[in-house]
Design goal:
heterodimer, A: alpha+beta, four-stranded antiparallel beta sheet, three-stranded antiparallel beta sheet, 2 helices, 8 strands, B: mainly beta, five-stranded mixed beta sheet, 3% helix
């Protein structure tokens, strides 16, 4: 009997409603975040003695719409695709291409010299060449022999 | 009714075996993502084909099937470089579109820029239903 009393005293009829409201808010927030997320282009990376080569396929993107930045060890490739302008009397039959803005950040395996970064865009394929600073390059250490 | 139909070529059927291609050629074949727009005068196809230029592109029209084929050379990194991340394998492109009856087989124009192909197919002018006069015999 005492237990029931306590239950009634502490029971809040609006608690469940509030909980439901919170859950709904979370769901909608997640949805809105999802829409805001950008397309992340896929990349291939090569590593060598002098540095790194990063390649990505960005078809239909004009070179001036690509923005490349290096901050610390993070390389960011972002940009936008110009959407197809639908003229008067034009209708689409099939639409498969991506028109979303794209952004991709990748943490590189080592520090690079941002001053020496070069980018080339040919036939819709981006090639970024990143140089490793001279002082960071692996050195060969010779072991001296003492007889 | 749409004037154009697409046929998705099966990756398995068009992917050639290793011996058929040179070592620099990729073994995969992709179906390029395409947009198709239509006006009263033209049908235009826009296809994503990164790595393809005007020399490596083949467009063939056989009866009413229009095939776009792009050959891509696999990237060879400089000596001493090894791959540390591989998110996409490079591949060739192939896709066949079936054209409707009311398109002009001549006068198809194509432009490729930044790995992006645009084909413009003109439609026949007289696609309005014709009335056939019948005279009494």
């Amino acid at each position: 009997m005492l237990d029931q009393m306590t239950y009634w005293e502490t029971w809040d009829p609006f608690h469940e409603i509030r909980q439901l409201q919170e859950e709904m808010n979370q769901t909608f927030y997640a949805q809105s975040q999802k829409k805001a997320s950008k397309r992340a282009p896929l990349i291939n990376v090569w590593s060598g003695q002098d540095g790194l080569i990063v390649r990505s396929e960005l078809p239909g993107v004009s070179p001036d719409k690509i923005d490349i930045s290096v901050v610390g060890r993070d390389l960011t490739i972002k940009g936008s695709v110009e959407p197809h302008e639908v003229k008067d009397g034009e209708r689409f039959i099939r639409r498969e291409r991506d028109y979303e803005d794209f952004s991709r950040t990748v943490t590189l395996p080592y520090r690079v010299d941002s001053e020496q970064t070069e980018a080339q865009f040919k036939n819709g394929v981006l090639t970024v060449t990143l140089k490793r600073p001279q002082e960071d390059k692996p050195r060969k250490i010779t072991v001296k022999f003492d007889h | 009714m749409s004037n154009i139909e697409t046929t998705k070529t099966n990756e398995e059927t068009c992917a050639a075996t290793e011996d058929q291609y040179k070592s620099s050629e990729p073994k995969r074949t992709y179906i390029p993502k395409s947009d198709i727009y239509e006006t009263d005068e033209t049908v235009s196809i826009w296809a994503d084909m990164p790595g393809v230029d005007e020399k490596s592109l083949d467009i063939t029209l056989d009866k009413n099937s229009l095939t776009i084929e792009g050959h891509v050379e696999d990237y060879s990194a400089p000596d001493g470089y090894y791959q540390v991340m591989n998110e996409y394998p490079v591949g060739n492109y192939k896709r066949t579109f079936t054209l409707g009856m009311n398109v002009q087989r001549e006068g198809i124009e194509g432009v490729v820029k930044n790995g992006f192909l645009n084909l413009i197919i003109p439609k026949t002018k007289d696609n309005v239903a014709k009335k056939i006069p019948i005279s009494a015999g």
